[in-house]
Amino acid sequence: xxxxxxxxxxLKDFNREEIEYIFKVALEFDLVASKKRSVSLxxxxxxxxxxxxxxxxxxxxxxxxxxxxxxxxxxxAEAAVSRAGDHYGESISDTVRMIDRYADIIAVxxxxxxxxxxxxxxxxxxxxxxxxxxxxxxxxxxxxxxTIFKYRGQRLDGLKILLMGGMNYRVMHSLCxxxxxxxxxxxxxxxxxxxxxxxxxxxxLKSREVFxxxxxxxxxxxDHIEVIEQIGPKRNKGDFIEDxxxxxxxxxxxxxxxxxVLHPLPRIGELSEDVDSTQxxxxxxxxxxxxxxxxxxxxxxxxxx
Length: 305
Ligand code: CP
What we know:
Elements (H helix, E strand, L loop, with lengths): L15 H19 L11 E6 L5 H12 L3 E4 L16 H11 L2 E6 L4 H8 L4 E6 L5 H14 L8 E6 L4 H9 L7 E6 L7 H9 L3 E4 L12 E5 L28 E3 L20 H6 L1 H12 L4
Parallel strand pairs: 1-2, 1-3, 3-4, 5-6, 5-8, 6-7, 8-9
Helix pairs in contact: 1-9, 2-9, 3-4, 5-6, 5-9
Bound molecules: phosphoric acid mono(formamide)ester.
């Protein structure tokens, strides 16, 4: 499988074979990452870590991934200390035309949808979208699917998944673009009226003949779904959240014992901490999987795997 030079902008651009290949490579890096070892595969290569928006997990797991591959990392502490983020407001096209002379691969997060695609247009090196506005978060969705893939004995066909919270989150969009690559996927969504799945994505699922159903309460599906991916609804810390959108231990009482609860994190109250000690909690392992998965993406896009 040749992924050398590929950008990772949208999961619409990746087919089943490519996704499975990335997972296969990630499995090979799993032990390196979990034992906190390093290899020298990417020795001499540099990742430009360009985070114009806050991040804990995505940024640190991208940087850890490159360091564990034996490469180096450059970046700025925050957007405000780059010329793109200060009073110059340097353009994305100028910024990237410099950076592709410094680095071998770019990971970029930006608050504006389409920024990763714009960077890729001006860059000769691979651009990996680490989240662009409310558009997509493809590496997070791959990390989430990789977590499910491992949990289900390395298969995704036949998955029944509930997307819960805000369908306006970029990771939900990326999941809906990638999951249809697999067979007999059933997607349920549970969100507030103002955070329903965008029509464009619902139409995409329809065009792929994927089972998709909006539900009004978690009780409708809790006994037969295999995975809940939760995030949102979007709000600030301390803002009101309707009880029906809070996932807690009590609501999981009727769940399939093997139900896996995922959340890209951070959580701000929608996922109760009393779930952490249940057999369902998969979100910290999911966050850990960001390292081998991003090692695989970097290695594949650099043509090292
Ligand atoms: N899941 C996720 O994107 O987390 P960060 O915002 O901390 O990167």
